Please model this.
Amino acid sequence: MKLYYHPVSTTSRIAWLGAEECGEKCELQVIDLMTGEHMKPPYSDMNPNKLVPMLEDGDFRLTESASILRYIAEKCKSPAYPTELRARARVNEMMDWFNSNIYKDLAYGLVYPQIFPNHQRPSEEMQKGTLAWHKERTENWLKILDEKLIGPKKAYLTGDAITIADYQGGEIIGLGEIVRCNYAKYPNITRWMGKIKALPSWPKVNEVFYGFAASVKDKPFVAV
Model:
């Protein structure tokens, strides 16, 4: 299998972390987002969304990170994607929760408008309003995640065993570190993230991302 990705891309890291932790050593092909490689042939012909990641398995291509994560785990028969109906439904529920809720507000509403020029709002007033609104919404999702979805008793998102939902969720919550989000008031999230960051593949998968974060460490940000 071949994974087209960029190491700063959150969704790319989700797919890559899942592949590594499931034991699938994908061939990696960087698509340089900074030079617009994703907008040009041949990549734009292969992936009309012009986004990363994309998985290629022979003549089969898959373009959504959550679907890629599920596909790899299924192909590898990973215990991180349980086969029992209700256990799998819980994993899928958490993956959908992250994509449908907190990812929109944390990433596209709070982080990306501050670190990527093409996501900045056209006026200072709109930028401030956007950041304030999405910060409040992100804090609400974090409270739900901390108190209700993880809580004080669960080790991982769906129980005592790690699943692919944890790979996805860990990368999404970890994204906040680039704008120096402080999760100290969310003790269950902090405890859970400690386990995710202890995964063998975490340092390698996030090395470039942390380098990018270091390059903007002196820039002021709005953060939770």
Q: What stands out?
A: The first strand starts at residue 2 and ends at 5. The helical segments are 10-22, 43-46, 65-75, 85-115, 124-150, 164-175, 187-197, 202-215.
